[in-house]
Fold:
Amino acid sequence: MPAGGCKDFMKPENTPPENELECLELENPGACDDFCRSADPEGPLTVYQVRQKHNVHFTGTAGEYFRIWIVNLFLTVLTLGIYAAWAKVRTRRYFYAHTFLADQPFDYMANPWFILRGNVFIGAGILFYLAAERLAPIYGVIVVVLFYAGLPFLVYKSLRFNAHNSTYRNIRFRFCGSLKDGYKTYLLVPLMIPLTLGLIVPYWIYRRKKYFFENFSFGCTRNVFRGTAGPFYRAYSYAGLIMMGLAAVAAGSTFLIVTRWRNFALQLDGALGLSTLAPIGAYLAALLAFTFVQQFLYARLTNYCWSRTCPQGLRFESRLKARRLLWLRLTNVLAVILSLGLLIPWAKVRRTRYILNSLTVITDRSLDAFAAAETPVESAVGETATDFFDIDIGL
Amino acid sequence: MISFKATYFDGTISTPHRVQVRSDGAGLRIRFETDSRPEIRFALKDCHFRPPLGKANRSILLPGGARCDTEDREAAAVLEAHRGLNRGMRMVGFIESRWKLALGSLAGLVLCIWSLTSFGIPLLADFAAAAVPAEFSRELSRQALEVLDTRFFEPSQLDRDRSAELQKLFRRIVDHQGSRMHPVLEFRKGGPVGPNAMALPSGLILVTDELVALAANDHDIAGVMAHEIAHVENRHGLRTLFQNTGVFLLLSVLAGDVTSVTSLAGILPLILIKSGYSRRFESEADRAAGTLLVEMGWGTAPFRNILTRISHETPGRPVYSLFATHPNLDERIRLLKQLDADD
Structure:
């Protein structure tokens, strides 16, 4: 990939010599745990003079974000959707500006006019789809096929746009992934899902994470991702086992009720209308099980990906716990439903705070010594498209 | 002269510099506190102020890619106001910073959604339906008819004389009402649909054999025909289509970033609003049919009878009136009786 303009890069004094770093990589292929967890001062890492731990710290509050959120919604509806572009920039800026690393905040610099242009493009596309689909279903199918063919391009553009507009200490992030890899990740591999009876799904998730973690870079510090598909398959196997276990418990208890406590259950049914409530109960139980597995996978895979992301001089440690995420999710959903949506900002701030505060950045040199690279301006079309269709492309 | 402390980043390397910023309203001077760098000066008009956002630090983007972040929001606001920058966003920031105004926005939001769904969207849908070329609605109806014919309907088994009689009745009603849309009547064997009638946007009206059989006399069927003709004449089909599209777009804008939390909760209001529109059109068609029947001197009793019989023939309909596409039967009958009384 083109290195971008790294001409101004000032090499900090305490960076280890190039050859020693390579040596280290050969000794420990495919992992950066050595760097993160090694407590042995006489190991091969003694060349790192400065090793600093920085906890990411989120300072946003539910009250302040609620006001921004409600004003955003009001102005968006009042302007018939035009303000949505500004609303999005403000929301994202709020979350970035309250994310601190080593006392300095992040920033989101996107120009709302670009996003408005993207919104208009996508809105026209949707209207076109609705009209085409009504006129003849076959046109609708064609539009959907075109959409999926264009999706990798939109994801690629969106990742670039977002990276380019994210800054920390006035240094822009970059997304260095290629469009070709984007098409492999978002079109070729998913096309193989039916052929492999879904067995390729963990690999697909791995490829998506890889596409992001490998290519998201800070300034001219290129990311290195050393993850493999194995842990993804392990995580999904556990998830499958958990699901089967919960299903077995549900089936077993139903069996017990029907055989042992039949009379009691019939009495209860008479009193409470249990048989009508049972499907609702079963649905809620299934939803609960699904949510648990979802949070388990999120915690495990996010932690794994961060631990295997090792750009030169940087390591990450994410300590998400599935139980805590599940608790947050359940209470959030309940709060949002009971408050008719008014607690959405509270829920969002709460979850973001937990996820970000669980992340630690470890550096072998001062955070003051990262250099910028030149990147071209990105269009916002991809950015809005992925947002509008709500495709999970991120972490 | 305004002076405040800030953190300076040159844009090429991530090193923060503690600086003192001073401005006389025309220029900006940046003096480094710890480094021995020389003071830098900029014209204030070349500097770009990032709009205010809550209690977040203020940032000034300097020419050449450098930037200053400061916790002194007031000082930055004074300079910004002096230069007359970010007027709109300063206003937004002001509203966001006050609870009373934020709650006012909530009230405004509710008011906006209410007026959009009850007036704005129906009005826009009406304009859109009127602007649609006849070609489009014909094609639309052809598609719908194809689906109905392959999935539900079978060819009508009505004998020729009866069908000719009913066509004559239909023409009589159309002539009486005076028509712009040229409705056409056809019969189908309803099968799973049962006794029913429907209108397609092109003006094609379908009546099932089962409905014809259910009717005690021709006046019963006349009421149903008039109801469907009213749907056609008022372009209810196309208007429903555009209204539902409008509501879908409105909800997409509202849901925005929260789809993952509330995907289920987002569907409920959609169904609620859609069925509300549908009930409004049904009442409109009922009123038109009732008025016609009264004018013909038949009264609304035949129409009321057949509505009652249809609802008995199709049991198991959901009774939750908020979600129903048709108004409650008692409600429809009350409205029709009122037309009789008015006469």
Summary: DSSP finds 14 helices and nine strands in chain A. The CA atoms of residues 13 and 331 of chain A lie 49 Å apart. The radius of gyration of chain A is 24 Å. Chain A touches chain B through 59 residues (CB under 8 Å).
